[in-house]
Backbone:
């Protein structure tokens, strides 16, 4: 009982007062709205008429809509690419950079897009991929079939946006991976090399597990 009183009246309770307004707003505007939207998904209502319960009819109609299926597929491709590519590509670059004498130059070069604001990055990629950008350059080189507007082609624009996102966000992961690879203990790596491990085998069974631990 004494511990309960000391908690309610002491300094331990004070930090909760600071987060209380944010907690109230989250519950009031986010969680309540999410629950209300979920309940409405089982009804037919235009905001003015009487609410009519229709069960799963809205979901059946939704998954029969080809535009929704297309959007869902694009979203899954984006999520998968956003989770995998920003790790694999910076890791490959980090491995090459730490073994190169021009490592600092390449590190700054790859980190430069990360220092550009998203708005500027979007303008650069839009100009590069417009009809007067990279498609025009390929047309001059004799590849006239590539002169179409890439951002207007389904699927292609999805991968273009993924590439632009990876291009601008690769710098942070690259620097973190370079720091991680540089701080790995050298003893296990040297021991593995003496045992004959090299190349991909060395990185797969020794370097990457050590990087995961650190």
Residues:
């Amino acid at each position: 009982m004494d511990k309960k009183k000391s908690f309610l009246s002491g300094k331990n309770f004070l930090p909760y007062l600071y987060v209380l307004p944010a907690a109230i707003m989250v519950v009031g505007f986010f969680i309540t709205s999410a629950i209300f939207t979920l309940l409405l998904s089982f009804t037919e209502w235009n905001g003015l008429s009487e609410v009519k319960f229709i069960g799963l009819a809205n979901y059946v109609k939704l998954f029969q809509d080809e535009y929704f299926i297309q959007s869902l597929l694009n979203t899954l491709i984006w999520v998968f690419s956003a989770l995998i590519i920003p790790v694999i590509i910076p890791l490959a670059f980090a491995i090459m950079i730490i073994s190169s004498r021009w490592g600092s130059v390449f590190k700054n070069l790859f980190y430069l897009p990360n220092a550009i604001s998203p708005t500027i990055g979007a303008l650069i990629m839009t100009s590069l991929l417009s009809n007067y950008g990279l498609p025009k350059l390929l047309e001059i080189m004799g590849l006239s079939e590539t002169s179409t507007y890439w951002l207007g082609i389904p699927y292609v624009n999805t991968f273009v946006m993924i590439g632009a996102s990876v291009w601008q966000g690769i710098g942070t992961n690259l620097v973190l991976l370079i720091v991680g690879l540089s701080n790995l203990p050298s003893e296990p790596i040297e021991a593995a090399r003496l045992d004959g491990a090299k190349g991909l085998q060395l990185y797969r069974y020794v370097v990457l597990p050590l990087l995961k631990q650190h």
Observations:
- The CA atoms of residues 133 and 205 lie 44 Å apart.
- The first helix runs from residue 2 to 9.
- The chain is about 70% helix and 0% strand.
